[in-house]
Specification:
This protein is an alpha/beta fold. It has helices spanning 11-20, 42-46, 59-62, 124-143, 147-153, 163-179, 209-221, 312-330, 367-380, 384-400; strands at residues 3-7, 26-31, 35-37, 56-58, 69-73, 76-80, 85-88, 92-94, 97-100, 104-106, 155-159, 193-197, 224-227, 232-236, 239-242, 246-248, 251-254, 258-260, 277-278, 284-285, 288-293, 298-299, 346-349, 355-358, 363-366. Among the domains are: 3-32 and 74-106 and 258-330, FAD/NAD(P)-binding domain (3-Layer(bba) Sandwich), CATH 3.50.50; 112-256, 3-Layer(bba) Sandwich (FAD/NAD(P)-binding domain), CATH 3.50.50.
């Protein structure tokens, strides 16, 4: 039986597996976590809108009815392509086809020391830590007597004006200016300053100019200070130094960039400057046509010659494509040699009930955009339970301004 190993159960890896399980292959999924995470909604966990269980589902549960697929909780540490073998922390495995879908991690653009002073948002651990940090800032402010200390505690700086930065800024503004207003007696949570920094002339630089301007104006109506053309020069304990000013803040959140998982640590391949593997047109790697790299870990150009973004729709399409390549390869069928990405649009939410949707040929914004954004995100959640729970939480939050996950559970 043909042995297929998929490393990583994100959107790309999961889609590859789902397209292969109908065939009679021996499929193994290896992931260092036992769950699939819906990363686009991590910011809602970080801002107490959802609980972690609402956006994650056990991998074994997804494939519980599949007899030809097994799930291994382990971590990849090496690949020996000459032997068709991978090495994990706990074992070795042999494959006929290998799919690397290990995703990405935060990038501080060579300033790795900044991670000690600014929190990123790529995992459930990140989100729950940030949730605790944001909520504790208000708790500390409630008991402080020092005016300067109060101002620092009530200041939230977000670095990076892409979707994550915009969504986080809007959600923190909603939390501080609408949700918490009647829950504290000493402080006025509406006085919180949310500052979004973006080095480009506009936030959401990959969307249309009109929607970018709309997003900026909407954030500003929510009370967010949007500073474009602002370059961060240094981050230290409680301080962000930019090309225009030095900002003192208790909470600094990094939303500015990512880099691919360290594939070069496992196998000798060429990558771009952020670690994405330079793959062939069929998403295989040079010299090894039975090894594929998909999702955020691969470097694939669009029709305009620019690299595809690290988005869930890209990862899902690449996973589905590779599954078909593998099936046709095994059956000696006609193989589609080149991957083409079909752009399904660009979506980002701004606060409680506002979002932008950009399909190039038509756009949506405001409440209708938020409704469309909500439907799309609920649809892409894995299990029915997740869809139902997220829907209930969102409706409750929308009607009551309530937050059902405002728990501080860390001990840091």
């Amino acid at each position: 039986m043909t042995r297929i190993i998929i490393v990583g159960a994100g959107f790309a890896g999961l889609q590859t597996a789902k397209r292969l399980i109908t065939s009679s292959f021996d499929i193994t999924i290896i992931d260092k976590n036992n769950y699939h995470l819906f990363q686009p909604l991590l910011y809602q966990v970080a801002t107490a809108g959802l609980s972690p269980a609402d956006i994650a589902v056990p991998i074994r549960n997804i494939f519980r009815s599949q007899q030809n697929l097994k799930v291994i909780l382990d971590e990849l540490i090496g690949i020996t392509p000459e032997l068709n073998q991978i090495t994990t922390k706990n074992n070795t495995y042999f494959y006929d086809f290998l799919v690397i879908a290990t995703g990405s991690e935060p990038s501080y653009f060579g300033q790795d020391q900044w991670k000690n002073f600014s929190s990123s948002l790529k995992s459930i651990e990140d989100a729950t830590f940030l949730r605790g940090k944001i909520l504790k800032a208000f708790e500390k402010a409630e008991r402080t007597k020092n005016k300067q200390g109060l101002e620092k505690l009530m200041k939230f700086v977000l670095i990076g004006g892409g979707p994550t930065g915009v969504e986080m800024a809007g959600a923190i503004a909603e939390l501080s200016k609408k949700v918490l207003t009647k829950e504290f007696t000493t402080i006025d949570t509406k006085a919180a300053r949310i500052i979004l920094l973006e080095k480009s002339p506009n936030i959401l630089p990959t969307t249309s100019h009109s929607l970018s301007i709309y997003a900026k104006k909407t954030l500003e109506k929510l009370g967010v200070e949007v500073n474009c053309s602002t370059t961060v020069q240094n981050i230290s304990e409680g301080l962000v130094e930019t090309n225009t000013e030095t900002i003192e803040a208790e909470t600094i959140i990094w939303c500015a960039g990512v880099k691919a998982s360290p594939t070069r640590n496992w196998i000798n391949v060429k990558t771009d400057k952020i670690g994405r593997v330079l793959v062939n047109e069929d998403l295989s790697i040079p010299d090894h046509t039975n090894i594929f790299v998909v999702g955020d870990a691969s470097y694939v150009k669009n029709k305009n010659g620019k690299p595809l973004p690290g988005l869930a729709p890209v990862a899902k399409q690449e996973g589905a494509f590779v599954a078909e390549v593998i099936k046709k390869n095994i059956r000696n069928g006609k193989i589609q040699k080149k991957f083409y990405y079909k752009n399904r649009g660009y979506l980002a939410t701004i606060g409680r009930s506002d979002a932008i949707v950009d399909f190039k040929w038509f756009t949506l914004k405001g409440r209708i955009g938020w409704i469309f954004w909500s439907i799309i995100h609920i649809y892409f959640l894995i299990s029915f339970r997740n869809r139902l729970m997220v829907f209930i939480n969102w409706v409750w939050s929308y009607l009551t301004f309530g937050k059902g996950a405002r728990l501080i559970i860390d001990d840091k």
